[in-house]
Structures are given as C-alpha cells and as structure tokens.
Protein 1
Amino acid sequence: MSQLDRLRRLLLGRTPSAPPVSADNPVSGTLPERRQGNDASQLKLLLADIRDSFAKTGGAEIASADLVKALVAIEGRPWAEMDKSGKPLTQNRLARMLKPLAIAPDHIDPKTRVRGYKLSQFEETFSRYLPPEGVSNRSTVQNVANTGNGGEPGLSSRRLQELADWYSDQAYWHYSPNALAAGALDAELRAILRKEVFPEHVEIELARVKNRLH
C-alpha cells in the first residue's frame, strides 16, 4: 500500500491492522498504529485550519508564507511548536505534510514568482475528509493526542493517566510547596493541554487529569 493510500485510509477512519509480533518487531503494533493515528488526526486538523485560513482571506489563493503565518498564529493549535525543539511550522514542513495528499505549492503570481496554494487544490480533499463548512467538526477533528477515546471529544483514558503520572512525578521531584501553592505546575499542565485540546476544553481536561490524582 502506498503512503498516499495509507494516509487516505487513516483519514477516513480505516486503521490498518497491526503488524505481527516477530523478532524484527518484538513489540506489538500499538505504538506504530498510535503514531499513524496521530498523524491522521493532525492532518485533519491542518486541513480544517487551512480551510479556515482561505475563508478568512476570501481569496482563491494564498502564499505559502502567509498561510504558515496564519496557521502559527492560531491559538491552541500545535503549529507554533511542532516538536520537542519548540520550532514553529515552516513552509517546507507544511509542504511535506501535504505531500501525501498530492498537494504541493506552486507559483501563484507569475510576476513575482511567489509560491503558494490555490483553493482549487484542496476542494476535493476538503469535501472528502472534512465536514461541510458551518457544521461543527469537533467530532471529526479531534486533538492529536486523543486516540482510543471512542470518538468522544477530549483526551483518552490512557493520555489522562499519562498526564496524571507526569503531574505526580513533577510535584514530588521538581516543585517546592510554595511553587505548587502558586499554581506553577498547573500552569505547565495547561501549556501542555493547549497543544492537545481545543482552548475551551483546557480547564475541563485539567480537572479530569487532577481527578486521577486522588
């Protein structure tokens, strides 16, 4: 199966079966599947934000630099910090993420040779993978950490427990009583949650994580 077909299957919710356990693959397929699922969720989120960016400009095309700037500016999305290094989304990274969908930047202004994207390049992809505009997409575009939660909004039980364990470890080893009382650790947890859930869900998920500490 090609990378394009695999990504399309993931976007449509058809997760490939796990690879068998073997000497070359001593661990089950849970981690690869989870990574693939996260990639698909992130790609859906990206497509939704790209569609919103086109809608805000009202144009039929947008320069790569302008699109990246618009994406990075969206609060509560992962585009401002794409990896552990904290680096934001770049034009090249955006192009790599869209490549499996056969969408690539091209010259949109023959006079200046500015490269970017045309709305027509996305129309089929939008209609296939996203709900119609004006319809809430929260049930479709989940946060990238939400895998295995039965399709419901919010973090999965596994992710909630991971964050609760992390919180307990941080509270015991790295934070003084005064810092904890001042809410420093809660602020750090909120920063994590803002990258994984919609802004309006941060406090809800914060409470769910802390409920697991009792």
Protein 2
Amino acid sequence: MPDALPFWKTKPLERMTRSEWESLCDGCGRCCLHKLRDDESGRLAFTNVACRLLNIPSCRCADYENRRRWVPDCVRLTPARVRKLDWLPPSCAYRLLAEGKDLHWWHPLVSGDPETVHRAGVSVRGRVVRERDAGPLEDHVVRWPGLVPPRAQGPAPEGPTLQRDEGPQAR
C-alpha cells in the first residue's frame, strides 16, 4: 500500500490544523525583515534589517506567542492574507501552496531537517543586521529577500547533503 500524501498536498490552507499551519513556516526569517513601500508608487522595497524579535542565528521569533505585544504591526498570517500580501518571499511555503505550487526540496517538511533552509541559502542567517544597529532603513535596501537563491531552485542536489553554512553571523 503506498504511503499517504503529506497534508500540504491534500488539504487547502483553510482546512489545516494550527499545528499543520505553523509547520509550514520554513524558518527562513525573510518575512521578519523590514520592508519599505513608496507612498506614491506603492512600490515595495526589501531591507536586510531584522525585526527586533528575530533571533538571527536561529531565524525564529524570540517571543512568537507574544510578538504582537512587542511589535503591534506584526502580521498574523491567515489563508486570506497570504493570498493578498505582495511581500511574502517567492520561496515562502504559505505563498507557494496558495499559488497551487509544491514545497521546495529544502523545506524542513520535505527534507526532514530544519537546517536545509539555511544550507540552501534561503534563510536570513548571516545576511541581516539587527534593527537597533541599522540606522535609516533606506540605507539597507536589498533585492535578495524577493528572490529564490540559485542553489535552492530546482531539484535537491545529488550526493551528500549540502554542507553546513558556517559563515559569519550578522548582528
């Protein structure tokens, strides 16, 4: 008897349990970067400045359950919001599934390893600055949060798993 398909391939976002929904987060931290929007054109710009609650080495929120107490404008993702937001990264599982696409090979639900998101170069680990150290956000505009890294595209690499990313950690 063949194995059952994983929940993300059989359930729409609206029918997922809270545990299933939360497990879709790959831990990349890209959604936790500050973004700028031009008032006149509406154009979006990503920055490499992390939210004050983002634990940069782990790429996880330091106080997820109480985050809105500390960061009132933190967006709580819902299936409806995911379909409307234009700033979710193209690699985001919520966005991919809302668009009818599958998860990438490096997603922890696919790989079984929470480190593959870092080794594939998708996470913000080692690439961002802390909010309190940044200064003007306009000085930190970058393109990479809106792009899927080349080594993360396509099928999983053959042979040994990607090497651990031991690069310097940004503060």
